[in-house]
User: What shape does this take?
Amino acid sequence: MDANDYRLIDAYLQKELPPDQLPAFQQRLASDATFAAELALRQNMNNYLRTQAHQHQLEEKMATLGPTYFGERAANLRHLNARYWIMGLVAAVVAVLLVVWNPLRQPDLYHEFAQHQPLNLTEKSTAGQLAAAAEASFNAGNYEAAYRQLTTYLQETPADNQARLALGIAALETDRVPEAQAIFTAVAAGDSVFRSYGTWYLALSYLKVDAKTAAKATLEKIPTTDPDFGARAIELRRALE
Assistant: This one.
């Protein structure tokens, strides 16, 4: 991470990143775990600092934790100008607070229940290099790359419902929520063996954007006897009550 990386992240969060730079930015997120982690940390920082109810506790904790945790972080950031040095230091403070002292922490039900099965496209005799690449990206959790590869693959093999479901998951994991919901709705309405998968993931898509009422209503469409998602749907509904 250098000064330009922090400027890019700042521009992205302020919605000032030029449109022609957005594809390269998203590719960087998909390929650079450190860069992606820094963006996530900054997003958490921004979200947390919007909460005013605990502002005085935050200030007290920052004063207490600063000398203990951030000497090394501060040393690494001194080469940046004053603005970005301060931003980096505050981000580090918030990161520790989110771990060791976060009165607003709630169970992350989406990540608890969104456990994706491995994608198996290459078991098909007609699968080629594109299918293998999409499978490898998806199973490695590189959903940005998987999204692009599955989009191309489905242009050539539109009847592959497993790949279409995986495309919806990749879209969901890369925050293309409306597109993911459209895919899951279509899969749930079809007559393939993935119908219950479509309903389950449609519910998860609502959960991810905190639309709990819609999530519960969708979960109720999954029969309790469904071998894949019946029990999990009941468990998630109870967690949402």
Remarks:
- The chain has 14 helices and no strands.
- Residues 99-106 have pLDDT under 50 and may be disordered.
- The radius of gyration is 21 Å.
